[in-house]
Design goal:
It is a single chain. The protein is α/β, with parallel strands linked by helices. The protein has helices spanning 12-23, 93-100, 102-114, 150-170, 194-203, 223-235, 254-264, 289-294, 303-317; strands at 3-7, 27-32, 51-55, 71-74, 117-123, 174-179, 182-183, 208-211, 217-219, 221-222, 243-246, 251-253, 271-274. A seven-stranded parallel beta sheet has the order 3-2-1-4-5-6-11, with helices on both faces. It has a two-stranded parallel sheet with strand order 7-10. A two-stranded parallel ribbon has the order 8-13. The radius of gyration is 19 Å and the shape is globular. It starts with a strand and ends with a helix. The chain binds uridine-5'-diphosphate (UDP).
């Protein structure tokens, strides 16, 4: 039986990935220090004898693991930019920088030792406040190197650089995926992301908080589509050394998303406008032609269908 290590496995995307890997018949080592991940996300998985949770901070060397590790997915990082959220990377700046730098280094050393295939989960944030749209993999980005978001943006850029260094110097079997906005069940209520905020505000008839005028855009990918893309990116040999965008190219303004969620939840909430966060990207739209070509992947779940499942999830835990 082959083993996959998922760093950040108790997080939002990581927990879905662990579940799908178990279904595929793999042994899963879920590594998480639970600073933004939640044990609740992996509660059902704990019953599976092929699943093992290890509470560990990836910036420290991974303890001796005798059996082989064939695959490593590195998804361990705080990921929400919302300064109003206790879980955001803005409120965990050092942890965010270290999990993407030292943490990536430690996992790459582990991959080198075990000859594992390695996937680094980077982010559309490496493009910063992009001057071009859609964003294609060969665009170098427009990033503020020391603003409040820099801990994530520059952390991810460092993570990419060290991952590619192991490819060039050690011929390690690595690939980088740049994850665009993703949503779905297992997001935390308080992580401050747009979809979780809007749904939780709407189902409680509280004001829906649109930042700025809501004219900035995002393109929302449902988590099930994302997980299929992540698995293909790691399992296919032809992705070695490649950088691939994963996301849904269905671009919407934030105000449109607020109205759709309000409508789908039959909410009495009013839409209110709040301060725009610093360096908030104005347009985010993935060019996924490379993923379509190399992975034969594209998202299949529409925004309305994905939102329905997400609304149902938040209603069930509220
Ligand atoms: N946003 C908003 N209201 C909220 C949370 C977020 O208007 O309650 C906006 C935010 O300013 C950004 C977009 O929604 O323009 C997406 O924010 P999110 O934190 O989900 O992710 P980002 O794409 O910025 O990393």
């Amino acid at each position: 039986m082959q083993t996959a290590l998922v760093a950040g496995g108790a997080g939002f995307i990581g927990s879905h990935l662990c579940s799908k890997l178990l279904n595929d018949g793999l042994k899963v080592l879920c590594v998480d220090n639970l600073i933004t991940g939640q044990e609740e996300n992996i509660k059902n998985l704990q019953k599976n004898p092929n699943f093992k949770f290890i509470n560990h901070d990836i910036i420290k060397p991974f303890e001796k693991h005798e059996s082989s590790i064939e695959y490593i997915f590195h998804l361990a990082s705080p990921a929400s930019p919302n300064e109003r959220s206790p879980r955001s990377y803005i409120n965990h700046p050092i942890e965010t920088l270290l999990s993407n730098s030292l943490g990536t280094y430690e996992l790459l050393k582990l991959a080198n030792k075990h000859h594992s295939k390695f996937l680094y989960a980077s982010s559309s944030e490496v493009y910063g406040d992009s001057e071009i749209s859609p964003q294609k993999e060969d665009y170098f980005g427009n990033v503020n190197p020391n603003g409040p978001r820099s801990v994530y943006d520059e952390g991810k850029r460092f993570g990419e650089a060290i991952t590619m260094s192991y490819f060039r110097k050690e011929n390690l079997d690595v690939r980088i995926v740049r994850i665009f906005n993703t949503y779905g069940p297992n997001m935390t209520i308080d992580d401050g992301r747009v979809v979780s905020n809007f749904i939780n505000q709407a189902i409680k008839d509280k004001p829906v908080t649109v930042y700025g005028e809501g004219l900035q855009t995002r393109s929302m990918c449902f988590v099930d589509d994302m997980v299929i893309g992540l698995k293909s990116a790691l399992f296919l040999d032809k992705t070695k050394g490649e950088v691939i965008n994963l996301g849904n190219p269905d671009e919407k303004t934030i105000l449109e998303i607020a109205k759709i969620i309000k409508d789908m939840t039959n909410s009495k909430s009013e839409i209110v406008f709040d301060k725009m966060p610093q360096d908030d990207p104005k347009r985010r739209l993935p060019d996924i032609s490379k993923a379509q070509k190399i992975l034969n992947w594209q998202p299949k779940i529409s925004l309305r269908v994905g939102l329905e499942k997400t609304i149902e999830y938040f209603r069930s835990i509220n």
